[in-house]
């Protein structure tokens, strides 16, 4: 009978230890998730600041035709996406900038680049109208 009691006690302690290890793994995963959320929030805030600066520079006449794509990315961050526009005259690539968490009914800026990756033109699109340069 003592053998069974001892075996049950050993089994119980072994399983309890596994539960503690499992909880530590879960806590570690949650901590990493929390860190990741903070990094994402920081990235989103930076992208929003970049887009606001781009909008302001367009409205104040500070965005210059002929700027290189590298200068644009340096000043305003990476675009949401770019697509080839080979059939649109001098424009070879069009890049979209917008708020990172808003997909519809939001301001958008399309920056159009020529074959030398220089800013050729832009289009500022609001939910209600389109302003073109």
List the topology elements.
Blueprint: H1 2-59, H2 69-76, E1 81-88, E2 91-98, E3 108-113, E4 119-125, E5 130-132
Antiparallel strand pairs: 1-2, 2-3, 3-4, 4-5
- What class do helices, strands and sheet pairing give? alpha+beta
Helical fraction: 40-55%
Summed up, the helix count is 2
The main pleated sheet reads as: 5 strands, antiparallel
Order of neighbouring strands in the sheet with most strands: 1-2-3-4-5
Helix and strand succession? HHEEEEE
Please state roughly what percent of the residues sit in beta strands, choosing from under 5%, 5-15%, 15-25%, 25-35%, 35-45% or over 45%. 15-25%
Measure the end-to-end span: 90 Å
Descriptive account of the structure:
The protein has a five-stranded antiparallel β-sheet with strand order 1-2-3-4-5, covered by helices on one side. It has one domain (2-132). The chain is 50% helix and 24% strand. It starts with a helix and ends with a strand. The mean pLDDT is 83. It has two helices and five strands; from the N terminus they run ααβββββ. β4 (119-125) and β5 form a beta hairpin. The protein is α+β, with helices and mostly antiparallel strands and 133 residues long. It is rod-shaped, with a radius of gyration of 27 Å.
